[in-house]
Amino acid sequence: MGEQDRGDLLRKLDKAEQDRDVLLEKIDKIAQEKEILQHNLEQLKKEIEKKKAQFKSVWRETPLYADWRKEEFQTVNLTLDAATAHPALFLSEEGRRVTWKEPSQELPSSSQRFVSLPCVLGQLHVGSGRFFWEVEVGDAHSWDLGVCRDNVVRNRGVAMSPQNGFWAIRLHDGEYWGLTSPETYLTLKEKPCRVGIFLDYEAGDVSFYNMTDESHIFTFSKQTFYGVLRPLFKLESSDSGSLTIVQVE
């Protein structure tokens, strides 16, 4: 190999080393930028979670919440369970409307039937998950709506409260109440024609919304649920009116 060839080879090797150094610098810069990007992404995630937590503290009062919350819950087509209906409660043929009528029906005795509280349960049995349904209350002026444990007392009178396995709201004499113990007086901006009930079993949450204006009515939060929960419907007397489960399209 001549002197010129050796010189060309050395120049090529030197150029290759320079190119290698430039490439290594670029790789190092990319790695640094990736590390910075990852850090910024983590910070952004933390900020988003912080904003979510702040929003969740007030979102129940947000009018649109009731509407878009339905996307996170399973909407169910309920029917009423005739085997649980108090003898004074008459169910429509399709099992979606309950009305108080007198005289009471002659019905066979059953451990499932309410014989003291004028209640009827929905066919839904919930032991996990999130569920939503709507009830048309219309002009009915005396009712209870909510959920209860499947094993609540049915053969005698009992206070309807979480301690006894009931999570419900009440309309009585034009006043709305959350059936806590003691009861919680509720102030509504507008009389509901439809009430939406959101049940989140794992979160221990039952929330009620006025679907007429999508405003929040009341929430039982951080409850301890165990066993099966079922939708609850109650009328007070023969002039209470009727309750109708809304058909989901």
CATH homologous superfamily annotation of the largest domain = SPRY domain
Mean pLDDT: 87
- Overall radius of gyration: 31 Å
State the end-to-end distance.
Answer: 88 Å
> Could you say what the CATH topology of the largest domain is called?
Jelly Rolls
- For the record, the CATH class of the largest domain is Mainly Beta
Q: Got a strand count?
A: 14
Number of separate domains: 2
Helix content range of the residues, please? 10-25%
Secondary-structure element pattern, one letter each: HHEEEEEEEEEEEEEE
Q: Tell me the CATH architecture of the largest domain.
A: Sandwich
Q: Percent of residues in beta strands?
A: 25-35%
Shape: rod-shaped
What features would you describe in this structure?
The chain is an alpha+beta fold and 249 residues long. It has two domains: 1-57; 63-245, SPRY domain (Jelly Rolls), CATH 2.60.120.920. It contains two helices and 14 strands, in the order ααββββββββββββββ. The chain has helices at residues 3-56, 65-69; strands spanning 74-75, 89-91, 97-100, 119-121, 130-136, 142-149, 166-172, 175-178, 184-186, 194-200, 205-210, 215-220, 229-235, 242-245. Strands 1, 2, 3, 5, 10, 11, 12 and 14 form an eight-stranded mixed β-sheet that branches. A six-stranded antiparallel β-sheet has the order 4-13-6-7-8-9, with no helix packed on it.
